[in-house]
Fold these 2 entries.
Entry 1:
Amino acid sequence: PVYLVDLKLYPGRIEFDYLPENTQGVICQPIGNQGALILGANAPRSYTKQDENWIEGIADKLAHNLMNYEL
């Protein structure tokens, strides 16, 4: 995952204007090659390595399930 630990330090933070105003940390986790899981936190550096591992596992599970889903 890409972990932006403190949004105020990044010039691209305006790209996350759909998140609540008090969002200070963001994780961008790819979901396969079809999308991304975006998670925000209200405090900088609030995600642990274990959190990142869980998020990666959830994204992998979502990618697998979405790949098997047919319209």
Note: The radius of gyration is 13 Å.
Entry 2:
Amino acid sequence: MRFIVWTSLILIVVLLGSGAYGFYRVTRNLPQISSLKDYQPSIVTNLYADDGSLIAEYYLERRIVVPLEKIPQTLIDAFVAAEDARFFEHEGIDFFGILRALWKNIKARGIVQGGSTITQQVTKSLLLTPERSYTRKLREAILAYRIEKYLSKKEILFLYLNQIYLGHGAYGVEAAAQNYFSKNVQELELAECAMLAGLPQAPSRYSPYSYPQRAKE
């Protein structure tokens, strides 16, 4: 009996030690989330003629950063509904969303929905490499939780809506609004907001240029 007790205790200690070491390996050298407060992405540089007309654009990524206050609430609501319905309720990781996505993917016999929250997408885009591994996914979840404690929901949405790729070289909602509708983001109508919100999952598949009918759906 005493042997069983001691063996169990040793096993528990080994498991706890292994878990602690594994957590240390995953969390060491994580990127500093403080850099998100000083968001300075690659943006468009415009060259104008003397009369004020646009001559050329220079950019690595066609992005025009716009304050959250200038983004229509209908567009914000559309993205939240499409990408992370429980955004204002969770703390970076939505376990219900993960289970829901898993169930839908099982029923569809393929990947039709991801389980990443908006905060996780910000983490992946701004702080981590695009590699696909369980270790990177765990690091992403830890960073997303920390970001939720460091930034407000509005600050996270600002980063997300200006950073996200929306197809045809457009990064962020302002560049996408100009690309697809030749207007500024604050001028978008409801249907246009809905179309943009449907792009993140598959920008090329739902491109209004390549597949106008899919984009309408």
Note: The domain at 63-216 is CATH 1.10.3810.10 (Penicillin binding protein transpeptidase fold).
